[in-house]
């Protein structure tokens, strides 16, 4: 974070500066960079409605920061513009989700979580971008974010012209689909904002129809409490029994709505080695993963997004997937071996899974 020189929109070279920022962003590995203003009033009303309906589930942090999420200047004083960048994350070597879903004894991990955690990488790149701007114009007030603070990332990206929020509530880009991360630089520079792009979902409803748990309740409306990403990552307690059979072999996140989206035929593979899949996480064997002790879990998930779920919830998720796997002595034996696990949460899901296989 830095404070200093003011840089006004009426200076003749702000447009030129933005073009330089785009170029510097590309040099740092970002696929695209745009600029948004800070008026999120329309999105604020929708957020209020979503929270009032309780659709955030246990994600209390969605409502914990007052208006800071929808009013950027409350989060970082004097914010006048937001520089938004996106970075592709889909690894070329990752096995297609469609194939993995047809192998019930294999674990499906969301594509974004196959490699190294993106937070540090993107934050470092954004700081380098801010430093490059500073070398050009002198000190200016700014702060860098990437999924790390109360920020309405997708609305800001939509305002910055990086895409539109699709019916599945994920940001879509006509030339790159949706397999990308977002990051922001809040700044006191008054930069000319980009024009938002129009919405191009049309009459398509593939994402709505494919959702295993019907979490997309209507176009552009997501009930997080039913979403497999929420259930496997954010939910701390017991997964609702009625949703467990619908989860299949998805053990961390869910990509089904992105998998079927026609716009993802244009998705670009990442050039970042850090996002390459780890062999244990791309099509991992459910029984082998369930056999990890906590030390192994911590070793294999070091620097990976799965670490934040914690060992207990990792076993919970795997128990559900094993309950949905093909019945075999190997699967039943793995579940029985966890029957006396010290965690009541794990034991409960193990018993459910054993009952699915008619095993006592």
Automatic annotation (TrEMBL):
Binding site for cob(II)alamin: 69, 147, 171, 182, 229, 254-255
PROSITE patterns: 4FE4S_FER_1, 4FE4S_FER_2
Catalytic reaction(s) noted: epoxyqueuosine(34) in tRNA + AH2 = queuosine(34) in tRNA + A + H2O
Record's keyword annotation contains Iron: yes
Residues holding [4Fe-4S] cluster 1: 201, 204, 207, 261
Binding positions for tRNA per the UniProt entry: 236
GO molecular function list: 4 iron, 4 sulfur cluster binding; cobalamin binding; epoxyqueuosine reductase activity; metal ion binding
HAMAP family, per database record: QueG (MF_00916)
Residues reported to bind [4Fe-4S] cluster 2: 211, 227, 254, 257
4Fe-4S ferredoxin-type domain sequence ranges: 192-221
Keyword Transcription: no
Stated name of the protein: Epoxyqueuosine reductase
Cell location: Cytoplasm
Main location: cytoplasm
Catalytic center residues: 147 (proton donor)
A GO biological process held by the record: tRNA queuosine(34) biosynthetic process
Cofactor dependency: [4Fe-4S] cluster; cob(II)alamin
Quaternary structure annotation from Swiss-Prot or TrEMBL: Monomer.
GO terms under cellular component: cytoplasm
Cofactor info, note text: Binds 2 [4Fe-4S] clusters per monomer.
Keywords from the UniProt entry: 4Fe-4S, Cobalamin, Cobalt, Cytoplasm, Iron, Iron-sulfur, Metal-binding, Oxidoreductase, Queuosine biosynthesis, tRNA processing
